[in-house]
Amino acid sequence: MKNTHKNLSQIVILCGGRGTRLKPLTDEIPKALVKLNHRPILDYILDFYKSQGFNRFILCTGYKGDMIKAHFAHKTPTMEIQFSDAGESASMLERIYAVKDQIDDTFFVSYGDTLMDIDHEAMLVFHKRHKVWATMVSAKIQNPFGLVTFNSKGIATSFVEKPIFNYYVGSFVMERSILEGVTPAMRLAPDGTGLVNFFLSLIRKKRLGVFEHNGKQLTFNTETERQIAEKNIGEFYTVTEKGV
């Protein structure tokens, strides 16, 4: 669904990681510029947001961030792109905290290696209606195994065949005001840990919403996954958009 409210909110995109599992590709370029069918994944992500009516972005760079800046130097006539570089070793939470003086009161955060056809307008309505401070996106995944629990005597206490779980898929909307509650310990924790602790603090306060996404999603961490993503990227486009 295309966003009917112009400049509804900014999109903060985290694209500063090293992408170590994609070496040797990421020895030369940042992960956000790794290509799927000759185009960087970050281009696909921005194109999707533009299709929903968004045109204001903050790219939180780090590892080889100058290459990302150079990539967009002459490609932004219809987009307002700002850059923030908190350093190569900064955690995801530190990168978000670093832009607290640049962002709207309510803003979206997305990962620079994940493409999803989320209805952001519906997500924002959900976020506001539930009066939470942040809302993360979840999707369902089925465990391929039967899971068993048992006690210290080796007696089974439960068995579930291929259970379905909800998992976090790397996108959320949040209120800028809650960044004031981010502690130095959270910001400086190892990458990922600080963001998890931040979410846990919101859960304890019953202020973290969960918006369920049942649509398409695409991400990759290894070369094999990149090749699969390259084959599946066409699912995000109509026949007209593919130019067929």
- Roughly what fraction of the amino acids lie in strands? 25-35%
Dominant shape: globular
Tell me the Rg in angstroms: 19 Å
Structural class: alpha/beta
Q: Main beta sheet, described?
A: 7 strands, mixed
Oligomer description: single chain
What's the total count of β strands? 13
**SSE string, helix = H, strand = E?**
EHEEHEHEHEEHEEEEHHEEHH
Strand order of the largest sheet: 5-4-1-6-11-8-12
Helical content (DSSP H or I, runs of 4+):
25-40%
Number of helices: 9
* Overall pLDDT: 87
Q: Tell me the span between the first and last alpha carbons.
A: 22 Å
The low-pLDDT segments are 1-7, 239-244
Would you mind describing this structure in some detail?
This protein is α/β, with parallel strands linked by helices and 244 residues long. It contains nine helices and 13 strands. It has a seven-stranded mixed sheet with strand order 5-4-1-6-11-8-12. A two-stranded antiparallel sheet has the order 2-3. Strands 7-13 form a two-stranded antiparallel sheet. Helix 3 links the parallel strand 4 (56-61) and strand 5 (80-85). The longest helix is centred in the C-terminal third of the chain and has 12 residues, at 193-204. It is globular, with a radius of gyration of 19 Å. The protein starts with 9 loop residues before the first strand and ends with a helix. The model is unreliable at 1-7 and 239-244 (pLDDT under 50).
Strand and helix map with partners:
Elements: E1 10-14, H1 25-28, E2 35-36, E3 39-40, H2 41-51, E4 56-61, H3 65-71, E5 80-85, H4 92-97, E6 106-111, E7 114-116, H5 120-129, E8 134-142, E9 146-150, E10 156-161, E11 164-175, H6 184-187, H7 193-204, E12 208-212, E13 217-219, H8 223-232, H9 239-242
Parallel strand pairs: 1-4, 1-6, 4-5, 8-12
Antiparallel strand pairs: 2-3, 6-11, 7-13, 8-11, 9-10
